[in-house]
């Protein structure tokens, strides 16, 4: 979203016109930004066999999945339903990695039946996988590296208490099971989960994973997950992709020399690809001055974008109806009957009833985490692709709220 000739535009389309046409609250995604983020990653890791897999859970609309398919990368899914959405969008089964956690073993069986790449994240399922498939179907193992801040108290990347992955301490146990059933390990995986800005810590994790990888002689890939940090406000520390690229390429080349065979290096970015591409537009229902603050109450809430309330995430907000004049402080709040503050002390151009506010960086974990809380409809979604706005999801209606309810005599 850029300010051009005094108005905010996405690929040249005035955002106020989009809001007028499709109504608010409205998610709008900019396809160019999605594609340019994919390219930024591709460019940063030249010199190794890079395989990117978009983490579908960030945003799963079919149009987005198709766009990402077209960019030539794969998919990382955490549920069998996400896998099916990916298949419907045209991804090849082999380009979809199934990375479940605490899902039933039956979902792993379904993933195998669909021909997906399978990632195992606990010892009992690894054993079971061996019993059921022996050496007939390969799998990847997800490792929890137990990397604390390592003397650097700013960043925590992975920790012993995490429910994800098989503890690196159980490395020998994994190997014993793998040998017992002759399981074909095709990859080693790690995803530390948190936004990381510290490349040293990431490289520390990478070194541990390369060590684990040496236990298996037929790997096709090593997957370093994601956690790439994006900027939510000016001056935010982000993951320096270029620097990470240089270090990863070097570490990978060293590993390959030792290992004696080439492997693909995978990443599974979600947020990095779609966060900045998405904006949530909302209408100002009321401006309310109290002794504590001036509230701008908008027609959306934690039902549509839960990140501020769930993670304390910061999202920049701008008044797209008024791009002039001096700014003052507003508390931007939602319409849900529960505290749902999008931002305290947001410096906005004077806000009036009826204005449209834009909540930025809303592409990832925005719509995908939305709910019908307070019996509100989920918003519509629009994708701007090649300079044209496409409605890619209708706003819900009363019928959607009642869809699965079953009437009984009371
Ligand atoms: C959520 C998730 C990701 C994506 O994380 P981002 O921070 O959105 O990039 C990647 N891999 C796995 C296994 C995940 O669960």
Distinct small-molecule ligands in the complex: pyridoxal-5'-phosphate
Shape: globular
Radius of gyration: 23 Å
Q: What does the oligomeric state look like here?
A: single chain
> Per DSSP, what share of the residues sits in E-state strands of 2 or more residues?
25-35%
Briefly note the CATH topology name of the largest domain: TIM Barrel
How far is the first residue's CA from the last residue's CA?
51 Å
Coarse structural class: alpha/beta
If classified by CATH, what would the architecture of the largest domain be? Alpha-Beta Barrel
The helical percent reads 25-40%
- Give the averaged pLDDT, no decimals: 94
Structure report:
- The chain is built from twelve helices and 21 strands.
- The protein has 410 residues and is an alpha/beta fold.
- The strands form three sheets. Strands 4, 14, 15, 16, 17, 18, 19, 20 and 21 form a nine-stranded mixed β-sheet that branches. Strands 5-6-7-8-9-11-12-13 form an eight-stranded parallel β-barrel, surrounded by five helices.
- About 2% of the residues have low confidence.
- Bound molecules: pyridoxal-5'-phosphate.
- The site of pyridoxal-5'-phosphate has 17 residues, from helix 10.
Q: What distinguishing features does this structure have?
A:
TIM Barrel, nine-stranded mixed beta sheet, alpha/beta, 410 residues, 12 helices, 2 domains, Lyase, Ornithine Decarboxylase, Chain A, domain 1, binds pyridoxal-5'-phosphate
């Amino acid at each position: 979203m850029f300010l051009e000739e005094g108005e905010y535009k996405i690929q040249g389309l005035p955002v106020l016109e989009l809001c007028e046409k499709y109504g608010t609250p409205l998610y709008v995604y900019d396809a160019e930004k999605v594609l340019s983020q994919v390219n930024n990653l591709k460019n940063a890791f030249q010199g190794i066999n890079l395989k990117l897999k978009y983490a579908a859970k960030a945003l799963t609309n079919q149009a987005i999945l198709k766009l990402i398919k077209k960019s030539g990368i794969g998919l990382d899914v955490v549920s069998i339903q996400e896998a099916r959405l990916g298949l419907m969008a045209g991804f090849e089964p082999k380009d979809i990695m199934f990375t479940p956690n605490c899902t039933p073993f039956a979902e792993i069986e379904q993933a195998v039946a669909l021909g997906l790449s399978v990632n195992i994240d606990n010892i009992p399922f690894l054993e079971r996988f061996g019993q059921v498939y022996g050496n007939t179907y390969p799998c990847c193992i997800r490792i929890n590296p137990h990397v604390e801040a390592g003397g650097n108290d700013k960043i925590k990347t992975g920790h012993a208490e995490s429910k994800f992955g098989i503890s690196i301490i159980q490395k020998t146990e994994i190997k014993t099971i793998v040998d017992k059933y002759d399981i074909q390990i095709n990859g080693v995986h790690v995803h530390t989960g948190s936004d990381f800005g510290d490349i040293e810590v990431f490289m520390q994790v990478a070194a541990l994973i390369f060590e684990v990888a040496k236990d298996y002689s037929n790997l096709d890939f090593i997957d370093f997950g994601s956690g790439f940090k994006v900027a939510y406000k000016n001056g935010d520390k982000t993951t320096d992709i270029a620097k990470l690229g240089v270090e990863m390429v070097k570490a990978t080349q060293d590993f390959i020399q030792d290992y004696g065979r080439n492997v693909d290096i995978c990443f599974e970015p979600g947020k990095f690809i779609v966060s900045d591409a998405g904006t949530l537009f909302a209408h100002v229902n009321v401006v309310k001055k109290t002794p504590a603050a001036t509230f701008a109450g908008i027609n959306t809430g934690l039902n549509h974008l839960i990140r501020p309330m769930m993670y304390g995430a910061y999202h920049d907000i701008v008044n797209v109806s008024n791009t002039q004049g001096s700014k003052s402080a507003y508390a931007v709040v939602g319409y849900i009957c529960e505290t749902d503050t999008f931002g305290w002390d947001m410096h906005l151009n004077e806000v009036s009833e009826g204005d449209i506010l834009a909540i930025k960086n809303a592409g990832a974990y925005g719509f995908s985490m939305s709910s019908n809380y307070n019996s509100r409809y989920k918003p519509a979604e629009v994708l701007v692709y090649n300079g044209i706005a496409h409605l890619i999801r209708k706003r819900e209606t009363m019928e959607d709220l009642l869809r699965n309810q079953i009437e009984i005599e009371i």
